[in-house]
Task: structure prediction
Amino acid sequence: MAVAVLFARSDSFYKTINECDVWDKERDATKFDGNSPVIAHPPCRAWGQLRKLANPCPGEKELAYFAVDAVRKNGGVLEHPKKSTLWPAAGLPLPGERDQFGGWTLPIFQSWWGHKAEKATLLYIVGCEPKDIPELPMLLGEAQYVCGSPGRRSDGTRLHKGDLGWRPEITKAEREHTPPELARWLVELAGRCDRREHENH
Result:
């Protein structure tokens, strides 16, 4: 079964996976007509922890609502940062809860699939029960890099190179790219999602 990948980067690894129907900026994911399960990576800068400093394009923030609807209608998974404000805004369930679409939330660290930083992430899943997801490659320990600033002490002061606990920051491209192993895992997960089986939730 083909899996539609919505809001992918133009140089996305998903384009190398045969099962993927990739919708990047040039192709315009809002034209997706809903005929397959989806993996949605809507832009997150307007929803994330640093949203007050972000400068999203007009209409960019609303793409996340389109992505939520696509997952709910077709089955699949939406990926966003752990502290995304999309969850309360769109009525997405917290971990351990369900919504009226049968959807649920799985917290992960992208470092489990080889990301250089932990990259704490939330996955909103519709159409696949928790017991039916692909095996999670949980990895213990701290990643060598961080996504944002190199870190802060408990008193709020910033850590500097050489300080205990300091870790280098990944690049913007590394923040945006999905690790290849996670991409393959998400494709397998989306392929197991069937919205029709969850219409009565």
Notes: The beta strands are 3-8, 20-24, 38-40, 76-81, 104-109, 120-126. The two ends are 24 Å apart (CA to CA). Helices lie at 63-74, 86-90, 172-176, 180-191.
